[in-house]
Automatic annotation (TrEMBL):
SUPFAM superfamilies in the record: Glycoside hydrolase/deacetylase
Protein name in the entry: NodB homology domain-containing protein
Domain NodB homology stretches: 35-220
CDD domains: CE4_ClCDA_like
Species for this entry: Cyclocybe aegerita
Topology of this chain in the membrane: Lipid-anchor; GPI-anchor
Molecular functions (GO terms): hydrolase activity, acting on carbon-nitrogen (but not peptide) bonds; metal ion binding
Cofactor: Co(2+)
Pfam families: Polysacc_deac_1 (PF01522)
GO biological process, one term: carbohydrate metabolic process
Species lineage: Eukaryota, Fungi, Dikarya, Basidiomycota, Agaricomycotina
Keyword vocabulary terms for this entry: Carbohydrate metabolism, Cell membrane, Cell wall biogenesis/degradation, Glycoprotein, GPI-anchor, Hydrolase, Lipoprotein, Membrane, Metal-binding, Signal
UniProt GO cellular component terms: plasma membrane; side of membrane
Length: 246
């Protein structure tokens, strides 16, 4: 299962030793399919994931969850594992938000790869899927991050709309932001939200779903709205053993 991860680490070492400029990963900041909106959720897996998923599924919508390995909780904790599996099994896209939510632009080449591969490995173990999308914490990236992402086969995913929940916006303020967004009616929407806020899960998300669908948007995964693969590979999940720890 982990031969691919080891292979990418070897490629990283070889690429870093190469004197010429390394290739960089693709950065996406918006969807490409007209009339689609991708609702994405960072910083989990957290306790509100179930309610976020249920709200989406009830509306025949699909979300994208960017998971950390060890941020609010360890991804290998039994409760966290169940949340990741629940999202995946209910048709949502799961992706990398790196291991510890560190600002990647402050890290060395080796540290960047460590932040990436540890959460990739965790997702492979938990659901059997090797993610093709990585969202850098805070949306921060530099040449090293893009070069490491390219080697790891990752697309770097940013956003073109921020609900503001992570920077202190109230539910009313986030809803107002969605109102203003819908009023502009862009062709596509790539929305940043966080599953770690109760108001996002229980107030803002139901409101946003209703407003966006009423405006004619189809709520889909990031992979679907960009026409790109969600995963580099999909296989059987692993079995819990002594390596499942943070």
């Amino acid at each position: 299962m982990f031969v691919r991860a080891l292979f990418t680490v070897l490629l990283a070492v070889l690429a870093y030793a190469t004197p010429h400029r390394r290739q960089e990963a693709r950065v996406i900041t918006s969807c490409t399919k007209p009339n689609t909106a991708a609702l994405t959720f960072d910083d989990g897996p957290w306790v509100y994931l179930y309610d976020v998923s249920k709200a989406l599924v009830a509306a025949n919508a699909t979300g994208t969850f960017f998971f950390n390995g060890n941020n609010y909780a360890c991804i290998y904790d039994e409760d966290s594992v169940k949340r990741v599996q629940y999202a995946y099994q209910h048709g949502h896209q799961v992706a990398s938000h790196t291991w510890s939510h560190a600002d990647l632009t402050t890290l060395t080449w080796d540290q960047i790869h460590d932040e990436m591969w540890r959460v990739e490995q965790a997702l492979q173990k938990i659901v059997g899927a090797y993610p093709a999308f990585m969202r850098p914490p805070y949306g921060n990236y530099n040449d090293l991050v893009l070069q490491a992402s390219y080697i790891r086969g990752q697309v770097v995913a940013i956003w073109d709309f921020d609900s503001g929940d992570s920077v202190g916006a109230t539910a009313a303020q986030s809803e107002s932001s969605y109102d203003q967004l819908v009023a502009r009616h862009p062709s596509t929407i790539l929305a940043l939200n966080h599953e770690t806020y109760e108001t996002t899960a229980h107030q803002v998300l139901p409101y946003a779903i209703q407003k966006l669908q009423a405006a004619g948007y189809k709520l889909v995964s990031l992979a679907e709205c960009t026409g790109l693969p969600a995963y580099q590979s999909v296989g059987a999940p692993g079995v819990r053993d002594s390596t499942w720890h943070c």
